[in-house]
Design goal:
The protein has 375 residues and is α+β, with helices and mostly antiparallel strands. The protein contains twelve helices and 13 strands. The strands form two sheets. Strands 1, 4, 5, 6, 7, 8, 9, 10, 11, 12 and 13 form an eleven-stranded mixed beta sheet that branches. The chain has a two-stranded antiparallel ribbon with strand order 2-3.
């Protein structure tokens, strides 16, 4: 699907560019001054995988642990991926191959795994056999697809259910066996107990979106190819969605961002994403288009704004002209641009190209929380 393709292609190109960072680094016309800057962990690289959904949400979880007074952790992104693949395969076969089976996913995929299986550190589950090489799921993805396709072809002959064991064996071969314990301060805890010790409760988090083809303040299954589990998102008017983002950052809460990065003026190398008024504009601070609900809706329904990529929003900054930008932690490595792997998305870009966000429910303004959580 499109998210998988863009996530995978861009991360692959940036992995190569990371090795040539000194030669390929581009100068940026943007300068940013922090307004709100939330403490987080180091920038990681998803390497040659389409798992931006896990990298962004895992970074978010690491930051949530810090926010709640816990230690700075290096959590395993691949722990969540390892559990998501077989569940995705199960649902795919249940609908006779008519669903989506790819590397792509959503923020709630991490939370769904966490709820049942907890979480692990990178040390406990690095998610690859050869630690000297970067992650690469090209062969793993095609191998899983071959197993599933073979199963689907044999439907009329009542194929054996052993395919689930075959799939698990393949995942173990490529990713390693799942850990039974996670070490914390000299103690061995189960992954579920470890999540509890870090005060991470999957039920504390909500996903929000803003599209007028569903009633406001309702929860609905957002029509995205990579919402393979058909999870629900709360629907807010655009101005209120932006209010949630700003209120969260002002009060020390980061959030996961899902949106479109295939636009001409999304330029990670130059560290910024904008919506200029002219299509031939230069990539620099300038007046931008005013984005309302109708413009946003049309972009979504026409497939001009899709869920290409997930990232982690960790702050709010102003450019040299005073325009607000959202500080965004990407998963393409800390040498992928002049901003240490971060980029800054303008308010107009956020209004137009945000598909959804995930945030702690305590970060919601009270008035909005009452409307959607029905307390």
């Amino acid at each position: 699907m499109r998210l998988k393709t863009i996530c995978f292609a861009l991360s692959g190109m940036l992995m190569i560019s990371n090795m040539q960072a000194q030669e390929t680094e581009e100068k940026s016309a943007f300068e940013f001054t922090p307004v709100h800057d939330i403490k987080t962990t180091s920038v990681k690289s998803q390497d040659r995988t389409g798992t931006c959904w896990s990298y962004s949400t895992t970074s978010f979880l690491e930051t949530e642990v810090i926010r709640q007074g816990g230690p700075e952790l290096d959590l395993s992104e691949m722990y969540f991926v390892r559990f998501a693949y077989p569940e995705k395969a199960r649902l795919y076969t249940m609908v006779h191959g008519k669903g989506n089976f790819s590397e792509g996913g959503q923020a709630h995929d991490v939370m769904n795994v966490l709820k049942e299986h907890g979480m692990a550190t990178e040390e406990a589950f690095p998610g690859r056999i050869d630690l000297t090489k970067p992650h690469n799921h090209s062969e793993l993805a095609s191998t899983q697809s071959a197993i599933l396709d073979n199963y689907m072809k044999q439907r009329k002959t009542r194929p054996s259910q052993q395919w689930t064991e075959v799939l698990a064996a393949v995942l173990n071969i490529y990713m390693g066996e799942l850990p039974e314990t996670v070490e914390l301060e000299g103690k061995d805890l189960s992954p579920v107990a470890f999540a509890g010790e870090m005060k991470i409760n999957a039920d504390d988090y909500v996903e929000l979106t803003s599209y007028s083809h569903h009633p406001w303040y309702s929860a609905f299954s957002l029509e995205l190819p990579d919402n393979w589990s058909h999870d629900n998102y709360y629907n807010l008017p655009l101005d209120e969605l932006m209010q949630v983002m700003n209120h969260a950052l002002e009060n020390g809460y980061s959030f996961v961002w899902d949106g479109d990065v295939s636009e001409k003026f999304f330029q990670h190398k130059k560290g910024a994403a904008i919506v200029p008024q002219a299509d031939d504009a230069e990539m620099k601070p300038q007046a931008e288009k005013s984005i309302d609900q109708a413009i946003r809706q049309e972009a979504f329904l026409s497939w001009n704004s899709t869920d290409d990529h997930l990232m982690h929003i960790t702050g709010l900054s102003n450019d040299q002209e005073g325009t607000p930008y959202y500080k965004t932690k990407n998963s393409w490595g800390d040498k992928s641009n002049a901003f240490g792997g971060y980029l800054y998305m303008s308010e107009s870009y956020m209004r137009l190209h945000t598909v959804a966000i995930m945030v702690h429910k305590d970060a919601l303004p009270n008035a909005i929380a009452k409307k959607i959580l029905k307390k």
